[in-house]
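*** Query protein ***
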Amino acid sequence: MRAGFFLSLLTTLLLTTPVEGQVRIFGRVIDDVTERPLTASQVTARARDGRFLGRVETDSLGTFEFDVKHVSSVRLDVRRVGYKANTTPLLHFDERNYFQVEVRLDPEAILLAPLEVVAWAQVEPSPFLENFRHRLKIGNGIFITREQIEARRPELVADLLRDIPGIVVTGSGTGNRASVNVGRAQAVAQVTGCEAQIYVDGFLVNRRTGPRQSRIADFRIDDVVSPMSVEGIEIYRGLSTVPAEFLNPDARCGVIVIWTRRGSRR
């Protein structure tokens, strides 16, 4: 059984000057067994001395945000009905002012709490769309913009991808729960189990699961995001074009990155 919560601090590009004395915490709460996002989870931030800093609930994607000022570290207390409540270790900010945090809750109420740090970076709060627009200008991948989405007004996100060269959408048509894959990875998947990786707001949402990470959890894009909530989509069919923040051993199978409109708030 994996840990009751898992924290990951993910690298993001430094594009603008950060706000002095302010830390933005952007996180996601997921079920440790099913990998599904947990909506309506209550997340409370407290300073080292226990002082209350704020409380929010996760949205339909299981995500949450905090802006905290003039503190050097915080703890996050995460609770949801049917799950074991978990409190993270202290998150030490030092001179950094942006964190991405993933919290896993165990439905079997087994409390295990290791901390794994993947990476960290000092950047401006919520730089997601700035990074997307930066890569859009470079043009190494295939991009779908908000303007294109509004022009098409599709029923499902998978419908946006059906006409993209090299993208394989399985399913009988609009209105069905379709699987999406990169064409070159489709053939490889039949031999190695290699599947395209899908990110939403910087989080990998179809992470490998099971014994020895042998398979990718059953996942459908349209289960977690709708076309009207999407600001932009990036598609990378080859390993040589995948941005550094999405590189990992499975990136060779193709990468699809979805950015939601919530990331455009200022």
